[in-house]
Design a protein that fits this description.
- There is one protein chain.
- With about 170 residues, the chain is α+β, with helices and mostly antiparallel strands.
- About 20% of the residues lie in helices and about 30% in strands.
- Strands 1, 2, 3, 4 and 5 form a five-stranded antiparallel sheet that branches.
- Helix 2 crosses helix 4.
- It is elongated, with a radius of gyration of 17 Å.
Length: about 170
Amino acid sequence: MSETKDLCPCGSGKAYAECCEPIIKGTTKAPTAESLMRARYTSYVKQEIDFIINTCEDSDEVAEIDRKATEDWSKNSTWHGLQILRTEKGTESDEEGIVEFEATYTRKQIRDVHHELAYFKKVNGDWMYSVGQLKTTTVVREGAKIGRNDPCPCGSGKKYKKCCGK
């Protein structure tokens, strides 16, 4: 049995090398919409921004992904886990599918849950993320509230209001 640190961040219980890594590295195609969703979450954890961008459907109806914002969210968050709530279609024989999921993370000392209904399509035989519909969630602060004039927790030496509190 592999060590906990080698487990895939997607929560499958499998080793990273046997789960999402081959999909992210391009040696294996995601067989289902759910497997692509798991690999996309893992890409946020592992900061594999190219994979996130390259698995978005490229069409006129779909907004272009903001690379800088995606990279910032990936790198400046502590990822706690992915929970697949339900799937609809998205099997190997389908052309489209839906995955409802929750990704829990902490950013700027605030624990949050990204709850989304994600739509996937097969494009030239590859599963692609098409669009997502966000669900509202409750944000829970971790630790004491930071005052505007307190030192910024990022360690910049600036006041919070002049740094990350903008």
